[in-house]
Amino acid sequence: MSKRQNAAWIWTQDWSSKDQQVARLVCFRKRIQINEHVEKASLKVTADSRYKLFINSKFVQVGPLKGNRQKWYYDQIDITKYLHLGSNTIAIQVLRYPAIHLAGNYSVTRTEMPGLYLNGYIQTVNNVMTIQTDETWKSFNDRQFEIVSEASDFAPMQIYEKRRGEPLLKYWLDADISCEGWHSVRVISNQQVPMILQPQNLYKRTVPFMERRLSHFSTVKKIVNSNQSSDSWRDLLVDDQPLTIGAHQHTIVEISAGSEQTGYLRLNFNHGAGTQVKIIQSEAYALSQTTVVNGLTIPIKKDREDEVHGHLEGFFDTYFISGYGTTTHPEKYRPFWFRTFRFIRLEIVTNEQPVTISQFDYESTMYPLVVKSAVKTSDTSLSDIWQLSERTLSHCMHETYEDCPYYEQQQYLMDTRAQILYTYAIAADDRLARKAIDDFKCSQNKDGTLNASAPNYEENIIPTFAVYYIWMLYDHMMYFDDQQLLKDNLQTVENILAYFQHHQTQYGYLDNLGGLNGVSRYWSFIDWTEQWNSTTGVPTAVKSGPVTLESLLYLYGLQAAIKIVQHLGFNQLAEEYAKQALELKHAIRKYCLSNSGMIQDGPGLEQYSQHAQVFGVLTGVLTESEGKTNLLQTIKYRKKYAQCSVAMSFYLFAALKKVGLYAESNQYWDIWRRMLANNCTTSVEAEAGERSECHAWGALALYELPTTILGVAPASPGYRTMTIKPTPGYLTWASGHVQTPVGLVKVDWKLVNDHIELNYEIPEQIELEE
After folding, report:
1. 167: how many CB neighbours lie within 10 A of its CB?
2. What is the 3-state secondary structure (H, E, C) of 613-674?
3. CB 277 within 8 A of CB 322
4. What is the DSSP letter of 189?
5. How open is the CA angle 456-150-689, to the nearest 5 degrees?
6. Count of alpha carbons within 13 Å of 764, Cβ hemisphere only?
7. Which of 137, 168, 173, 406 is the most buried (most CB within 10 A)?
8. Residues 6+ apart with CB under 8 A from 530
9. Which stretch of DSSP H or E encloses residue 571?
10. Whole-number Å distance between alpha carbons of 300 and 286
11. Which one, of 129, 131, 37, lies nearest residue 85 by Cα?
């Protein structure tokens, strides 16, 4: 029998116009009989919007991979090990987000058509059995499930749940239950299927499946109100020893996972009908004082572990126990999507019956990042910063890069360019980078701008963020040199640069590209620095006119594009871009340079920032001497100049290196030392308002230690040649190994009488450039 079959999209018959307006969880089941040993079994699965696949009660996989405006993905899943002789059950949950923007996850693409598609086979010794979505499946629309927005003002995730145990879903994953109360499915004709969802147009998943491993909470932080002892709670969390809470009790306990985690929560209950369970997930203990960043009120934090002076607040799920659970067959609550937490505040209110909790743990999940680089230095604090950074990056990598796993789970251009370089430096892994490049390419708008975050269900444009996409391509060229990838993205680059050129004034610099967040259509965001808090991360010069940094970033993008098109052999285009870059550089020097030699935040304005000097250095608008003088000014008089925050530290450190001021990096590592002193386990988003506790642009050490301090970097595209040029800064020695696309590089250096004594080992086929 052929493996190629005509599967169809299906959906539940129990679907109304109201269901179409809200997020719904729909369950699907099919029972199959296997009478011979299974040699191979595979399923092709996708859904609108997300699915979770279970086979014989085992959680197998979640998907599909996040798509975009132009691409919808399917997963090819090997299910051989999950099957056995006899009756088997394939069960799938589909979380369907409506086409209404604010009612769904911002980064999950969806269409007007809800649906599930599955096509696969089971190959036994003598037969090939087809498995596909068709009229033989059963479905159940769980209207006891509700998605609750995480906040009233800005809620991009839409993953948190209010849910009641549904008796008709009692043990629904098991093979031997009936489907009483379930419905037959509706087979959707191919003519009704949107073009992007038609089977022949689906794209195979391009990144590996996420790693999942069983994990336990580590400690009980605080018992607020409970008749059970800390030891009893610990026995439940660590050893799965059942814990019983009596009738008519209000129990509150706070527990710790030890560090920031991303994982699928798992709770089992016995009895306890009518019990309400509220699971508050939090990143840190916070003080009662608040501050406002970008219009959002956020708590002030100090010691993240301080349960005495701090409190936990955060996003939460609520589950109402049905009460059908027993010791042998517990009632299970599994929130659909993974959660981000370091601490959990568990609030349980029992009704007439006592309830027994027989399990509370989680499956941690993240991209299967294999860290292969390691660096030690004379500054032992950098080792702790490295560990914090590694944890930060890994928890911001799932099926896309993410700005932060707790608040948004969105892939932003500026963040992602840095995250990609961090990944290259420690793992030489470009699989997620390729996905990111394609997502941003597919987000291009008619005017040439890219979405600041992609995939994204809404327009979300920070014009200068497109520059970081151009640099992503340049970075990939230097590490991997996939010329086809460059050619496939070249038109996108040309469109971006044409957009900027269109906005040049008669003076040569750019006019305003946007403005304040929530006020202008486009946002001119640069950095979360204290001095720009009132203008939503935009230099205050925007109130008077053009922002110099937008011109500087345009120049920065042009310079990357020149190197790309030169490498591809498009010399005429390179010359054209070089001419534009030279004219732009002259315009910035003529109109945006003060008499003191500092680059102004706006043409002719006596407003200044460290950022303008940093990009003045990186673009060559400032000479090395001028750049050194200007940066020293911003370091000496910090209150006078808006300072680069965590987000812009990558570029600050690069500028310090370029002008011979890398020793000053010591004081900037204090940002991370303060995080460690406050018991952070991952990098904060910004010191000027610590909203997110896990923001991957803060994983800077993963790049700086291998690439700058050890000095290992590509010198020509594809790492055909390389350099080893350590930058000691304030350090006296460093040693380690760096994974590159061409092999492992070992480096050991120390300062002797201000001279670097350098030893290294490189792959035989690689030439070292002096």
Report:
1. 12
2. HHHHHHHCCCCHHHHHHHHHHHHHCCCCCECCCHHHHHHHHHHHHHCCCHHHHHHHCHHHHH
3. no
4. P
5. 85
6. 0
7. 406
8. 642, 643, 688
9. helix 571-591
10. 6
11. 37
Query: What does DSSP say about strands 315-320 and 161-164: parallel, antiparallel, or unpaired?
Result: parallel
Measured between its terminal Cα atoms, the distance across the chain in Å is: 62
Longest Cα pair distance anywhere in the chain, in angstroms?
86
712-766 residue pLDDT tens: 999 999 999 999 999 999 999 999 999 999 999 999 999 999 999 999 999 998 9
Cβ–Cβ < 8 Å for 74, 203: yes
H or E segment and range at residue 365: strand 355-366
User: Which of 479, 437, 444 shows the shortest CA–CA distance to 463?
Assistant: 444
From the number of C-beta atoms within 10 Å of its C-beta (0-12, 13-18, 19+), residue 126 rates as exposed
Secondary structure (3-state) at 27:
strand
Q: Where are the beta strands (DSSP E) in 143-209?
A: 145-147, 161-164, 183-187, 203-204
Confidence category of residue 4, pLDDT binned at 50, 70, 90: very low
Task: Please write the tens of the pLDDT for every residue from 616-662.
Answer: 999 999 999 999 999 999 999 999 999 999 999 999 999 999 999 99
Residue 109 in tokens: 């693409």
Give the CA distances from residue 264 to residues 323, 359, 360, in Å, rounded to whole numbers and listed in that order: 22, 13, 11
> Who's near 209: CB < 8 A, 6+ residues apart?
61, 75, 368
The alpha carbon of residue 653 and the mean position of all alpha carbons in its chain are separated, in whole angstroms, by 23
What are residue 247's phi and psi, to 5 degrees? -65, 150
Name the phi and psi angles at 253, rounded to 5.
-140, 145
Rg (the chain; Cα; Å):
28
Residue with tokens 């005429």: 572
**The total number of residues written for the chain in this structure:** 770
User: What tokens does 17 get?
Assistant: 């116009």
**Is residue 687 within 8 Å of residue 403, measured between CB atoms?**
no
**Cβ-based neighbour number of residue 570 at 10 Å:** 15
Give the single-character DSSP code of 174. Answer: S
